[in-house]
Amino acid sequence: MSCPKVAMVTGANKGIGLAIVRALCRQFAGHVYLTARDEGRGMAAVQTLQNEGLDPHFHQLDITDLSSIRRIRDFMRDKYGGVDVLVNNAAIAFKGRVVNIASIAGSMALRQCSQSLKEKFRSEDITEEELVELMENFVEDAKKGVHTQKGWPNWAYGVSKIGVIVLSRIQAKELSHKRGQSKILLNSCCPGWVKTDMAGPHATKTPDEGAITPVYLALLSEEDIEPHGQFVCEKKTQSW
């Protein structure tokens, strides 16, 4: 008997993550795992969805704890043979889908960078090591108060989203080279300005509306070959 397909959403006990789990429970033909750092809050979120007639599964995951990451990796590998859909709101199977939650703030911050930094972040040849070095440079420059003189925008959140978008591009390229037959699609996306604890009550989208683009990318069919390595807003690929 073959294993059911499985989708996993990180940081999913509230906000956009919870809305993505809700939508996947309704649209994904397989098991959907809601993960959260705090088991109590995660189980409470599962209960909320069960009260809506949905059937999510739960597994504890703290993405800052290597032992926690290894536990869920081993669990998914042993029970399902891998993961079909991974939504990073905070091993993948053949034809899997990976969605990294970023923000349009990344594009906006890039436009505020110096020409030299723009060229580095847009380079098709940038490596993960080079990206990490750039991010570390920003942190050190910001600590010293010289980041604007070095060509950085005065916007830590925006720069962090540059990192997510560029890392997604790098990872997608590596997947294409190393796993040419696996047909894994990896993209980053902006859910929009969503009413969350961070964005506040004046944002224009509900969490369910913010989940639309991430879920669209998570449910790309097995026949789809794109988008891949792209930054997507409102289900449309954005130039970088």
From TrEMBL:
Keywords: NADP, Oxidoreductase
InterPro entries: CBR1-like, NAD(P)-bd_dom_sf, Sc_DH/Rdtase_CS, SDR_fam
Single annotated GO MF: carbonyl reductase (NADPH) activity
Keyword NADP carried by entry: yes
Record EC number: 1.1.1.184
Group of enzyme by EC: oxidoreductase
Protein name: carbonyl reductase (NADPH)
Organism: Polypterus senegalus (Senegal bichir)
Domain of life: Eukaryota
Family: Belongs to the short-chain dehydrogenases/reductases (SDR) family.
Pfam family, one: adh_short_C2
Keyword Glycosyltransferase applies: no
